[in-house]
Write a structure and sequence with these properties.
The complex is a heterodimer of chains A (about 425) and B (about 100). Chain A is α+β, with helices and mostly antiparallel strands. Chain A has helices at about 15-25, 55-60, 110-120, 170, 195-205, 245-250, 255-260, 265-270, 320-340, 345, 350-355, 360-365, 370-375, 375-395, 405-415, 420-435; strands at about 5-10, 30-35, 50, 70-80, 85-90, 105, 125, 130-140, 140-145, 155-160, 185-195, 210-215, 225-230, 235-240, 275-285, 295, 300, 310, 315. In chain A, strands 3, 4, 5, 6, 11, 12, 13, 14 and 15 form a nine-stranded mixed sheet that branches. In chain A, strands 1, 2, 7, 8, 9, 10, 16 and 17 form an eight-stranded mixed sheet that branches. In chain A, strands 18-19 form a two-stranded antiparallel ribbon. The two termini of chain B are about 25 Å apart. Chain B has helices spanning about 10-15, 45, 75; strands spanning about 20, 30, 55, 60-65, 85, 95. The chains are: A alpha+beta (about 425), B alpha+beta (about 100). Chains A and B meet through strand 11, helix 6, helix 7 and strand 15 of A and helix 1, helix 2, helix 3 and strand 6 of B.
Chain lengths: ~425, ~100
């Protein structure tokens, strides 16, 4: 390995993973270059999501006093819908509306730029508008990156690939051998402008409190889900769609989104607003089962590049996993640089640390969840059963006497072709998956 | 599922709300559409969120790169090895999100 390096470490991608990695390297006194292909951090990033801030507590104490947050989520709803019905489990928790908070809505271009500024404040060198076009390698070992700048090769002891879900760097390093489209979904989202007081009224919140609605049964024949989140003066309304079935069908994403927006449970929430922005991004949906090698000679992979997004139905998280993995990658790289060994053996404690934190512990525990959530049972049968049972339960059929809950459930299960045995089996599967 | 009170916007209006800093010198997507002619699925046409892939009467695929979200859907759903070549645009170019 050449002893001449431009930086101790190069972090590719200034999203939450890359910013956290660069922050921890800079704090450890290492020289670090944070490369970003967009004109500013966050400019390429969108999500259907909520930022869960607990992982920030140790990195940036009292982060909530300065982070660019839209609203603090105090209502969390899970909606199960059919064509014109919806069951909603709606949980409101006022405690989430005060420090230290639980989750927040935020615009990623604002949030990611804020987090990257923490890294530059600590001494990281942020270089924007620069695409890493490939790896520099010597004898199989990664020694830097090529960029699209003139004379743009950059050499370092460690490269941390936080270059997102398409991670061309992890693929080039041979760490991401297969890209099965069934492991991926695509998210499409409209940011819909509405006056603050209209949002407050429609969603039943005040001040800087907000709502997170996750929806299943809203994507037609394509497995997936939907969401509605409140920002300060806009809504984020979108769908997440399984790639193979989307590609095999003949209904385009924006048409599926339009259909969800016309649903009687959604239309009154979103109507009258102006589309301020439309965005799309691929999601590494399968989580643990699709993760690449995380450690190589001179290279670590973190964030969506390592499929760290958690798409486990009732838990939909990603920014926190990106920050958690990025921070551990930065620390592991700093330790390895200090020891003078950035081979895969020298970097190996990155994976061990991740296993002892929520990042890999949650992913491992919930490794079957993405498949369960995308199964016909969850996508088609559950919505019809849930809505059908409630319809029968609450439709008053006088002068016919009430049929009783057991009979209603049996009748609806029969109609949907779900046997008692199958229901028990799937119930146990769900318990095992989420327990 | 329909609501007459809900006006849908045109695709052009939808995409007009997005900032793209187009690289006039280099297309970051190229399609070898000789490989598309015997493709029966053509998943890119339906799945691309930016609607960049259009079938031609001659059985090929016309593509644009200018209003690309850089999401990667097209090459992930493509089942013709090497038909779509997809890289990131040059630094500073391409989509710029602000309220996503």
């Amino acid at each position: 390995m050449s002893s001449v390096t431009d930086f101790d470490a190069i972090v590719v991608g200034a999203g939450p993973a890359g910013a956290a990695a660069a922050l921890e390297l800079a704090r450890a006194g290492r020289s670090v270059c944070l490369l970003e292909r967009g004109p500013f951090p966050g400019s390429k990033n969108m999500y259907g999501g909520v930022v869960y801030g607990r992982i920030l507590d140790t990195l940036i104490p009292a982060w909530w006093e300065e982070a660019p947050v839209q609203r603090w989520v105090t209502r969390r709803s899970t909606m199960i819908m059919t064509g014109d019905q919806a069951v909603t489990v709606d949980f409101r928790n006022e405690a989430w509306g005060a420090a230290p908070y639980n989750g927040a809505t935020a615009y990623r271009p604002d949030f990611d730029a804020w987090l990257a500024a923490k890294a530059t404040d600590a001494g990281a060198v942020l270089v924007c508008s620069t695409t890493a076009t490939g790896l520099l390698r010597e004898g199989g070992r990664v020694v830097g990156v090529r960029t699209d700048r003139p004379d743009g090769d950059l050499r370092a002891s460690v490269v941390i690939a936080c270059d997102g879900v398409n991670s061309f760097l992890a693929k080039e390093a041979g760490m991401y051998p297969h890209t099965d489209p069934s492991n991926f979904t695509v998210g499409v989202k409209e940011t819909i402008g509405l006056p603050r007081e209209v949002i407050d009224e429609r969603f039943g919140v005040r001040g800087d409190h907000g709502v997170d609605i996750e929806i299943i049964g809203c994507t037609g024949d394509v497995p997936g889900g939907g969401f509605v989140y409140t920002n300060g003066e806009s809504l984020a309304v979108g769908l997440v769609l399984s790639l193979p079935q989307l590609a095999a069908g003949d209904t385009r994403p924006e048409e599926l989104l339009r259909r969800m927006k016309t649903h009687p449970a959604i239309a009154p929430l979103v109507e009258g607003g102006e589309v301020l922005e439309y965005s799309a991004h691929v999601i590494p949906e399968a989580g643990y089962e699709m993760m690449p090698e995380l450690v190589g000679d001179g290279i670590l992979v973190a964030g969506d590049a390592a499929a760290m997004c958690l798409a486990a139905g009732i838990w939909l998280e990603g920014v926190n996993f990106a920050i958690g993995s990025g921070a551990e990658a930065g620390r592991a790289a700093a330790r390895a640089i200090g020891r003078g060994d950035t081979s895969s053996a020298g970097l190996a404690d990155y994976r061990r640390r991740l296993e002892s934190t929520f990042v890999l512990a949650d992913h491992h525990r919930l490794r079957a969840a993405p498949h369960l959530v995308m199964s016909p049972l969850a996508q088609q049968q559950l919505p019809k059963l849930a809505c059908g049972v409630l319809e029968d339960l609450f439709t008053v059929t006088n002068p016919e006497p009430k049929p009783g809950l057991r009979r209603i459930v049996r009748r609806r299960m029969k109609r949907e072709g779900v046997s008692t045995r199958e229901a028990l089996k799937q119930g146990l599967r769900a318990l095992r998956t989420f327990g | 599922m329909s609501s007459p009170s809900y006006p849908e916007i045109s695709f052009e209006t939808r995409m007009g709300a997005v900032e793209f800093r187009v690289d006039e010198d280099r297309a970051h997507i190229t399609v070898d559409d000789t490989k598309c002619r015997d493709c029966s699925t053509r998943g890119c046409i339906t799945a691309c969120p930016a609607n960049l892939f259009v079938p031609t009467a001659a059985g090929g695929i016309l593509f644009n790169y200018e209003q690309c979200f850089e999401c990667g859907t097209c090459y992930l759903v493509c089942n013709r090895e090497g038909a779509i070549t997809w890289t990131y645009p040059e630094g500073g170019h391409g989509v710029v999100f602000h309220r996503s």
